[in-house]
User: Fold this.
Amino acid sequence: MEIVKRCRSEGLFLHPDAREKLEGLKNPDKILEEVIDSISPDESVVLPKHIESRLENAKNQDYDNEGQNDGLKNDFNSVDNSFGNFEIRKDITKKSECEGELENFLDYFDKRFKKLSQEIRKRNGMGRARPLESLSNFSGEVSVIGMVTEIRNTSNGHKLIKLEDKTGAIPALALKSDEDVFQESEKVLLDEVIGVQGRISNKSDLLIIKKIIWPDLPIQNEANTSDTQRFAAFISDIHFGSKAFLGEAWDKFVNWINGKVGDGDHKELAKKIDYLVIAGDIVEGVGIYPGQEEVLAINSIKNQYEKAAKELGRIRDDLKIFLSPGNHDAVRQAEPQPALCDKMKESFSDLDNIEFIGNPSLLDLDGVNTLVYHGRSLDDLVADLPNKSYQEPANLMKEYVKRRHLVPSYGKNTPIAPEKDDYLFVESPDIIHSGHIHKFGIERYRGVTLLNTGTWQGQTKFQRKKGIQPTPGRVVVYDLMNNSPKIVKFSK
Assistant:
């Protein structure tokens, strides 16, 4: 195991002296796992003292004692029952106008092109990008912006990328002899909008690519923070109704967030949580994939949501719960997805602290822009991009920021509903929270904290076939004032 990568997967930094101590041990992996299990949620750096503590066989602190449920939702001495200041800034729920007609698609892609073009024009050297129709009989250096309509390898091993805008089209060539450009061309996706700087020579109508520009956020992009100390907890992919649902880990989480277990530091952290944000796949669903009935503990979709309401109802009611759907939930499959329908929401009628939101949704949590997106398109990115895998989900999520879109390609695994407004456009979030692939990961990229919070479901037969080993029972507790995430584990 690569110990630095293992620490990063848990949102921890490894001090050089601690790394040296670990590398001098016969069994560093075992010691590191003990450190990860026992480290305080207020610490983000693995120090030499943590290694020394494990070597001295200090008592490991975890959550094996679940506590007794005495009928109270929490054990905190005093609780502020007021929620923080939040706003749902963008959500398709009750705003859908899409009819699936050809005109809807034309209008959708036109607006998508305009938005992404505006972002690319902010990049260095792209402010004077020329319309493609103006390149007829042109030669020289040029910058253009286009939507990618075709990608293929030529017989000579070059990469041909066809670009279109509203005025025309042009083939652009990445030469295999230009290694840097060719490698970048391998990352281009169909239907995305890119900028290209290059040269047209001898009036050939063929653009030789010198540089590819994506509508990325600026390198120096700074995240917003809350003016007051507020905390949000992030989880995803609970899958109530599945035989593989990890009930024991879930019970530990509920008892922890209610203040029933943990030492003083852990109880203090749990007490501070104002928001719980759930990024989809609330339930296992019915008829999602062939043979799913074999893994269902609850066969009725209505009863699955009854189970979800019962379990979420165990959580203290002084925090706000945001409930967003995923591809396993009872909503339309095309994205953006609206919140659960009124019939399914009936199960939660006694819970006043739940906000039902769509997928994706943009939340303002005390001034921190939080984009909640289940993450179905991560499957498409793994399939289409080189050197990307499910093993590093947060690294994969960088593509959402780089391309400024949650579903860059049309017609893949992730269906798109052509709404009048592009709800899948990535503006300038401070946090992006996803799930879907059941792998935990956390990184920062250009001022954006990227969270993939794993799952509360064990490995299914489908995942075994795909070679996916889930990382369940992880909660990210985010300090909105200090822009600081902590990871709390409830499952090995």
About this structure: Confidence is low (pLDDT under 50) at residues 58-71, 77-81. The first helix runs from residue 3 to 9. The first strand starts at residue 13 and ends at 14.
